[in-house]
Design brief:
Elements: H1 2-9, H2 14-35, H3 45-55, H4 66-91, H5 101-109, H6 111-123, H7 126-156, H8 163-173, H9 180-196, H10 208-211, H11 221-246, H12 256-277, H13 283-306
Length: about 300
C-alpha cells in the first residue's frame, strides 16, 4: 500500500508530473513568445500562477450544483495523476504494468475532459454550457482516430495490449516512428493529443474571444488552480505516452536521460508549433477534420501495419 501511495503522490505521480508538466508548460510559453518576438515568462511562472490562484478567493456561482461544481476539478486532477502513473511506470521501465493497461489508460485519459464538461454544466452559466457542448463533440471526434492508431501500434507490437511490452518490443526491433505506418499514425495521434489538451486549433471549448473561456468561465481561486495543475500534468503525460508508443519509451539511467528529455521536448515542440501556426477552427470543421482525415490516416496506418510496413 505504501509504494502505491508513493507512486501516486510523489513519483511518478502528483509531485513529479506536476513539476515536469509545469516546466513543459513554461517551455511551451517561452517558445510561443519567441515565435511572436517576445521575451516570454520566467521559468518559475507556472508555479507563480498556481500559487497565486490558490491564494485567491473561490467564487461559487449562485445557479447550478455547488457540490458537483467544486468536485469536478478534484476529479479532473485525480484523473490526470492516475493517468500519469499508469503511463509513466511502464514507459520509464519502473513497473511492467498489467495485461490490458493500455485499454485502462484510454479510459483514464478521458476523465479530465469529462470533468470539464460536468463542471461547466454544474456552473449554470450558458456560455459554459456552450463550451461543454463543444467539448463533447470534440471528444466524439478525436477518440475514434486515437483508438485506431493504438490498434495499429498493437498490431505492430505482436498483438500485445500491455504498454511495457510495446516499449520492450521497440527496444528489440526499433522504434515504430521509423516505419511508414508509424509515421502516419504519429501524425494522427499528434492531432488527437492537440485536441485532448484543448490547444489551438482545437481550443473552441474555451474560445476566449467567443465564449469568454467557456467551460472554465465560472471557475476561480483554488478550484481553478486544480484545473491548471491538471493541464500541467497532462502536458507531460501525453507526450510521455507518445514517446512510449512511437519512440521506444523513456529512461532515467545515464545518457538515456538526455535522450528521454529530447524525445519529450520533440513532441512538445511539435505541439507548440501547431498551436502557433494555425488559427482556431470551428467545431464543425474540427469534427470533419477528425472524422474524415484523421480516421483515414489511422486506417492507412492499420493497413500498413498489417502489411509489415
Amino acid at each position: 500500500m505504501g509504494i502505491e501511495i508513493f507512486y501516486f503522490l510523489i513519483f511518478p505521480g502528483l509531485l513529479f508530473s506536476g513539476i515536469i508538466g509545469g516546466l513543459i508548460s513554461w517551455a511551451d510559453r517561452k517558445i510561443t513568445a519567441r515565435v511572436q518576438f517576445r521575451k516570454g515568462p520566467p521559468i518559475l511562472q507556472p508555479l507563480y500562477d498556481f500559487v497565486k490562484l490558490l491564494a485567491k478567493e473561490t467564487i461559487i456561482p449562485l445557479r447550478g450544483s455547488v457540490t458537483t461544481f467544486i468536485l469536478a476539478p478534484v476529479f479532473a486532477l485525480f484523473g490526470a495523476v492516475i493517468s500519469a502513473v499508469f503511463i509513466l511506470l511502464p514507459v520509464l521501465g519502473i513497473e511492467t504494468g498489467f495485461a490490458g493497461d493500455i485499454i485502462v489508460i484510454i479510459y483514464l485519459l478521458n476523465i479530465p475532459s469529462f470533468t470539464y464538461i460536468i463542471g461547466a454544466l454544474a456552473s449554470g452559466n450558458p456560455l459554459a454550457a456552450v463550451g461543454a457542448s463543444r467539448e463533447m463533440k470534440l471528444i466524439l471526434s478525436y477518440e475514434m482516430p486515437f483508438l485506431l492508431v493504438l490498434i495499429s501500434i498493437i498490431i505492430k507490437s505482436g498483438m500485445t495490449i500491455r504498454l511495457s511490452e510495446i516499449v520492450a518490443y521497440q527496444a528489440a526491433n526499433g522504434a515504430f516512428i521509423g516505419s511508414l505506418s508509424g509515421i502516419i499514425g504519429f501524425i494522427a495521434i499528434m492531432m488527437c493529443i492537440q485536441a485532448k489538451m484543448g490547444l489551438v486549433p482545437f481550443d473552441m471549448a474555451e474560445g476566449e474571444g467567443e465564449i469568454c473561456d467557456g467551460i472554465i468561465i465560472e471557475f476561480s481561486g483554488s478550484i481553478l488552480a486544480f484545473f491548471k495543475l491538471t493541464k500541467y500534468i497532462m502536458f507531460f503525460a501525453l507526450p510521455a505516452l507518445v514517446a512510449g508508443l512511437f519512440f521506444g519509451g523513456l529512461s532515467l539511467s545515464g545518457i538515456n536521460i538526455l535522450w528521454s528529455v529530447l524525445k519529450v521536448l520533440a513532441v512538445v515542440l511539435l505541439i507548440t508549433l501547431v498551436r502557433n501556426t494555425n488559427p482556431r477552427v470551428r467545431i464543425e470543421q474540427a469534427m470533419k477534420f477528425f472524422w474524415i482525415w484523421m480516421n483515414l490516416f489511422a486506417v492507412i496506418s492499420i493497413v500498413l501495419a498489417l502489411m509489415g510496413l
